[in-house]
Amino acid sequence: MVATDDAIAAAREAARSASSLDELRAALEKFDGCALKGSATRLVFADGNPSAKIMLVGEAPGRDEDIEGVPFVGRAGKLLDRMLAAIGLDRTSVYLANVVPWRPPGNRTPTPQETQICLPFVLRQVELANPDILICLGQLSAQALLGTKDSISKSRGRWFTFTTGYAEKREIRAMPIFHPDFLLLSPLQKRIAWRDLLSVKKALAE
Ligand code: URA
Is residue 181 in contact with ligand 1, taking CB distance under 6 Å? Predict the structure, then answer.
């Protein structure tokens, strides 16, 4: 593995050079700067509709996603589908990705180094998909994509501005919400997550 700074620089360059989501996926398939690629079964790039008005970004694939190569297909994914259905959405009307596209061993949280190395790719993925609204699922996604240091209990339900930065500067409305994995452990928080989703529904209708 190359040193972290070199890997981040290589990731930035590879992400910048990709001019479509297909090229970005191909660049990730070729990228060797993140050690997680060696332990994961496959790349988990995206699911859903890349032209959707809304894009959701989670943390990293788990076991089921690593097997299928598709984000959010396990238990958390099933809950996410129910959350989306509550505001009239499904995988034909959203685009889904993760900050880190390879499964960390044993489903551990990605390290800050792994996150920083993968970040240029997901930033470019948001820029290329160009949604009207970006939803960060959980704290790692909110902190990585929005640059906030706030905990998810503080940032959730608030509107942030995500500024794209590779090809051109563009502003996208963004909101962190609770991660479905957290809601599986803390079902009492679902009420809050559903309330946040209603704000998203309202914003989509504007
Ligand atoms: N959790 C995530 O953050 N992403 C997935 O794809 C699955 C579970």
Answer: yes
**Is the CB of residue 62 below 6 angstroms from any atom belonging to ligand 1?**
yes
Residue 65 sits in a domain whose CATH number is 3.40.470.10
* Distance of CA 51 from the midpoint of ligand 1 (Å): 21
Q: What is the pLDDT of residues 77-121, one digit of tens each?
A: 999 999 999 999 999 999 999 999 999 999 999 999 999 999 999
Residue 90 inside a domain? The answer is yes
Query: What is the distance between the alpha carbons of residues 105 and 82, in angstroms, rounded to a whole number?
Result: 27
Q: How far apart are the C-alpha atoms of 81 and 161, rounded to whole Å?
A: 25
Number of compact structural domains in the chain? 1
Distance 74 CA to ligand 1 centre (A): 8
In a domain, 170, yes or no: yes
Q: Could you tell me which residues are beta bridge partners of residue 97? A: 57
pLDDT tens per residue across span 39-91? 999 999 999 999 999 999 999 999 999 999 999 999 999 999 999 999 999 99
Residue 122 corresponds to which tokens in the numbers above?
């997901």
Q: How many CB atoms lie within 10 A of CB 108?
A: 10
Q: Which domain holds residue 11?
A: 4-30+41-205
Model confidence, pTM: 0.97
Among the listed residues 95, 118, 83, the one whose alpha carbon sits nearest the alpha carbon of residue 190: 83
Does 2 have pLDDT greater than 60? no
- Ligand 1 pocket member 139 (CB < 6 A): no
Q: Structure tokens of 185?
A: 């452990």
Residue 36 resides in a domain: no
